[in-house]
Design a protein that fits this description.
The protein contains ten helices and six strands, in the order H-H-H-H-H-E-H-E-H-E-H-E-H-E-H-E. The protein has about 270 residues and is an alpha/beta fold. It has a six-stranded parallel sheet, with helices on both faces. About 30% of the residues are buried.
């Protein structure tokens, strides 16, 4: 009985944490007897009313530009009717009054920025784990006939994992380091790690002249498609100072719509 309960709890957890992959139909088999047993086993967890339907509306708004299917509200309501013992949810931006924005807005903004940039490379850094942002950059680049090159080990790992799970497979504009040397700078987009100013990340290596095949010039555009993680401000400002010394133009969330948070704000929670 215990093994069965733990297995069902694991499935419920997978639904809560990975709802964007539509795991809904694979779980929610908890019955009333199981819920009673779970309450006894996990007595430190207070029963929480699950506002799944509202949560998923927020998720759909935030990912409207991503190639994922919409959430099934009817099925979610059925889950709620079965009873929820605990809800695992996001609280990062719960006190932010302003709307978080959607990936669609970033996509439209980057498309405009990319199309208006006629000379030099576009170097864009983001969180490697943000598959939605990678898709946005790849799609915009593809529409404008630009080639993309990944720089940074974590980006390669995430990309390989995405391919294994049937994401990002539709793009044919991704090139390797060797081929990037054959592409005109005006047609090249470098997607790199280093948005937090890490000294050994891809962006720092380019800026500091430590990459054997890539360099940066005053004609290049550098985009920080991310926000600062508290505590990283100093090293981020340092790398930006070095970029400005080279003469590059810098865009970030303060002066352009190049990033939105995946965490819903107060109005959406």
């Amino acid at each position: 009985m215990q093994d069965s309960i733990e297995a069902k709890l694991k499935k419920l957890s997978e639904r809560l944490s990975g709802i964007e992959k539509q795991l809904i139909e694979e779980s929610s088999t908890l019955n009333q007897d199981d819920l009673i047993s779970l309450n006894k086993e996990f007595s430190h967890i207070q029963p929480i009313v699950d506002l799944y339907s509202k949560y998923l509306k927020v998720l759909d708004e935030n990912t409207q530009a991503i190639s994922l299917s919409k959430s099934d509200e009817n099925e979610i309501k059925e889950i709620c009717n079965d009873g929820i013992t605990a809800m695992i949810c996001d609280s990062t931006n719960v006190f932010n009054e302003n709307p978080s924005g959607s990936e669609f807005e970033v996509r439209e903004s980057l498309k405009k920025i990319f199309s208006e940039r006629k000379k030099g490379k576009i170097i864009i850094t983001c969180f490697a784990s943000n598959i939605a942002r990678l898709e946005t950059i790849l799609k915009v680049s593809d529409e404008l006939n630009k080639c993309c090159f990944f720089l940074g080990r974590s980006l390669f790992r995430i990309y390989e994992s995405a391919i294994e799970n049937n994401y990002l497979k539709q793009f044919n504009n991704i090139i390797n380091e060797k081929d990037s040397r054959l592409i005109n700078d005006d047609d090249l987009v470098i997607i790199c790690t280093g948005s937090q100013g890490e000294s050994r990340a891809g962006l720092s290596r380019i800026v500091n002249g430590n990459h054997k095949n890539l360099n940066i010039s005053s004609e290049d555009l550098v985009i920080f498609s991310s926000r600062e993680i508290p505590g990283n401000e100093k090293q981020i400002n340092e790398i930006k100072k070095e970029i400005m010394k080279i003469g590059c133009h810098i865009l970030d969330h303060r002066n352009s719509m190049v990033h939105v948070s995946g965490h819903p704000s107060k109005k959406r929670t």
